[in-house]
Q: What sequence folds into this?
C-alpha cells in the first residue's frame, strides 16, 4: 500500500485522543492530512480513515464478501455477547439479519406509530410543572419501552404485561420489563463518560475485582439482564401460545436448513444487542433534537407552526412526513451523528480506494462525522440549519418537493449516512426515524419546555456513541394551550 500520512504520536496517545476527544481529534487530523489518513490506536490494528463520499462509495458499494466487519467489533463482545449481529460475518450475518429484518421495516414499522405516541404521552405526563428533568433520561424511558414492544411484543393484546400478570406465575412475567430496565440503564451509564468508556477500549481494565469494581459492576448488570432474558425465553418455550410476531418470537421459531434453531445464548446475545442499540442511540438523537429546537427560537417557531397547521385528527404517519420536521431530524443526525464512525472493515482481497491500494487484512473506516462536516457538502457545517435538507433532500426520503435554489439535487447515501451503509446499515433505521419524528412532534405540540441554561452543550463520548455532555436539562413551563398554538400559526401565515 502507498504510505498514507497520519499522526506520528504514539499509539497510546492516539488511543487517549480517540477515547477522550474523538471529534476534535478527527477534525485535527483531517485538517492536517486530508480526506484519507491513517490512525494507529493502541490495542487495534492500524486503520485508514475515509471521509470523501467517493471513497465511502468505493467501500460500501462493493460486494459485501470483499470485507469482514464483525471481527473489527470484538471490543463490543464484552457487552453484547459473541453472537451479536454486529460481531457476525458471512453466512451467519446474512442469515440472522434476514431473520431480524421484518419487524423493522415496511408496514410493521408503521404499526408501531400509535404505540410510540401513547408511550410518549405517558412519560411526558409524569413531568412536573416548573420542575427540571433531563432529556436523555426521559427519552430513554420512551425509547426503551418502545424497543421492548418491538423485541418482546409485551404490549400487544393478550401479550401485554397487565394481561400476563393475571396468570399464576404472572408476577415474574408482568414485572420483567420493570426488572430489565434498571440494570440495562445502569450498564449503559457505566460507560457513559470518556473515563468510564475506557473499560471498553482497554482490555486490561476488564477484570472483575468484586461487586464495587468498575468491571465487576458491568459483569453483574449484564448477568442480571441475561437471567431475565432467559426467564422470558423459558416462559415462551413452556407456553408456545405466547409466541407472536415480535423479534424474539420470530428468532425462537427460526430453523436453518438442518432444522436447528438458535440456542439460548444466541437468542440472548441478539436480544441484548437490540435492547442496547435499539433504544440508547435513538434516545441520544432525541436529546440532541430537543436541545437544538430549544436553543434556536427560530427553529422552534417554524417547527411548531408546521405541526400546529395540521388538522387535530391528522394521523401519525402524516405527521412523520412533514418536511420541516424531517429536516430538523436529519440536521440533528448530521451535526452530531450518534455513531461518529461506521463499522471498520477488514479487506479480504486487494482493493483500491481513493487511488490507494489496500491489501488483505488492512482496515478501512468510513467516518460519518467528518463526512457530515465537509464544507463542500454542508456550508457552515457547525451551524444547525435544517433548511439545508429542504434545499437538498436525501435519496429515498419521502417528502414534499425541494425548495430553494438547489433544484432536484439530493444528498446521496454516501454524503449523508447517519445509520452507516452497505450491508451493515443499522437494521432499525426506519423505526429510529419514525420514533424521532413522532416523539418530537408529540412533545412539542403538547408541552412548553425550555432549556435551564443558555450555555452551549458539547458532545462527549458515551460508550461508542456521542451524546450531550449534560443530558440536556429542560424545565417544564406547562402544557401548551390552544391559544398558544393559534398564535404560532398566525405568526407564520
A:
Amino acid at each position: 500500500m502507498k504510505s498514507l500520512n497520519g499522526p506520528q504520536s504514539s499509539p497510546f496517545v492516539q488511543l487517549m485522543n480517540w477515547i477522550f476527544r474523538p471529534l476534535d481529534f478527527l477534525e485535527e487530523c483531517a485538517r492536517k492530512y486530508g480526506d484519507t489518513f491513517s490512525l494507529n490506536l493502541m490495542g487495534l490494528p492500524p486503520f485508514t480513515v475515509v471521509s470523501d463520499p467517493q471513497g465511502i462509495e468505493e467501500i460500501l458499494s462493493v460486494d459485501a464478501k470483499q470485507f469482514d466487519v464483525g471481527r473489527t467489533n470484538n471490543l463490543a463482545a464484552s457487552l453484547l455477547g459473541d453472537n451479536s449481529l454486529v460481531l457476525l460475518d458471512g453466512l451467519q450475518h446474512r442469515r440472522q439479519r434476514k431473520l431480524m429484518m421484518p419487524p423493522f421495516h415496511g408496514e410493521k414499522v408503521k404499526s408501531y406509530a400509535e404505540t410510540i405516541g401513547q408511550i410518549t404521552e405517558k412519560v411526558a405526563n409524569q413531568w412536573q410543572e416548573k420542575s427540571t428533568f433531563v432529556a436523555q433520561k426521559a427519552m430513554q424511558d420512551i425509547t426503551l419501552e418502545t424497543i421492548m414492544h418491538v423485541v418482546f411484543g409485551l404490549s400487544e393484546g393478550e401479550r401485554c404485561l397487565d394481561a400476563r400478570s393475571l396468570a399464576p406465575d404472572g408476577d415474574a412475567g408482568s414485572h420483567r420489563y420493570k426488572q430489565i430496565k434498571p440494570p440495562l440503564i445502569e450498564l449503559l451509564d457505566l460507560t457513559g463518560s470518556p473515563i468510564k468508556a475506557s473499560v471498553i477500549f482497554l482490555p486490561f481494565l476488564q477484570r472483575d475485582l468484586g461487586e464495587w469494581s468498575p468491571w465487576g459492576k458491568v459483569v453483574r448488570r449484564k448477568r442480571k439482564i441475561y437471567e431475565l432474558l432467559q426467564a422470558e425465553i423459558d416462559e415462551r418455550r413452556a407456553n408456545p401460545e405466547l409466541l407472536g410476531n415480535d423479534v424474539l418470537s420470530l428468532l425462537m421459531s427460526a430453523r436453518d436448513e438442518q432444522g436447528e434453531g438458535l440456542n439460548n445464548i444466541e437468542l440472548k446475545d441478539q436480544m441484548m444487542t437490540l435492547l442496547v442499540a435499539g433504544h440508547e442511540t435513538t434516545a441520544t438523537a432525541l436529546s440532541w433534537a430537543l436541545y437544538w429546537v430549544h436553543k434556536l427560537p427560530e427553529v422552534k417557531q417554524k417547527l411548531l407552526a408546521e405541526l400546529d397547521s395540521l388538522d387535530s385528527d391528522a394521523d401519525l404517519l402524516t405527521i412523520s412526513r412533514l418536511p420541516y420536521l424531517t429536516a430538523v431530524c436529519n440536521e440533528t443526525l448530521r451535526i452530531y451523528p450518534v455513531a461518529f464512525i461506521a463499522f471498520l472493515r477488514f479487506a479480504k482481497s486487494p482493493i483500491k480506494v481513493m487511488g490507494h491500494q489496500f491489501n488483505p487484512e488492512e482496515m478501512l473506516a468510513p467516518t460519518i462525522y467528518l463526512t457530515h462536516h465537509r464544507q463542500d457538502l454542508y456550508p457552515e457545517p457547525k451551524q444547525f440549519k435544517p433548511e439545508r435538507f429542504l434545499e437538498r433532500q436525501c435519496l429515498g426520503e419521502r417528502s414534499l418537493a425541494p425548495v430553494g435554489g438547489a433544484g432536484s439535487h439530493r444528498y446521496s447515501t454516501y454524503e449523508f449516512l447517519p445509520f452507516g451503509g452497505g450491508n451493515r446499515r443499522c437494521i432499525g433505521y426506519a423505526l429510529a426515524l419514525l420514533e424521532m419524528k413522532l416523539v418530537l412532534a408529540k412533545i412539542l405540540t403538547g408541552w412548553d419546555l425550555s432549556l435551564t441554561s443558555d450555555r452551549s452543550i458539547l458532545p462527549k463520548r458515551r460508550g461508542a456513541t456521542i451524546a450531550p455532555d449534560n443530558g440536556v436539562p429542560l424545565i417544564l413551563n406547562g402544557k401548551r394551550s390552544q391559544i398558544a398554538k393559534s398564535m404560532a400559526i398566525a405568526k407564520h401565515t
In short: The first strand starts at residue 36 and ends at 39.
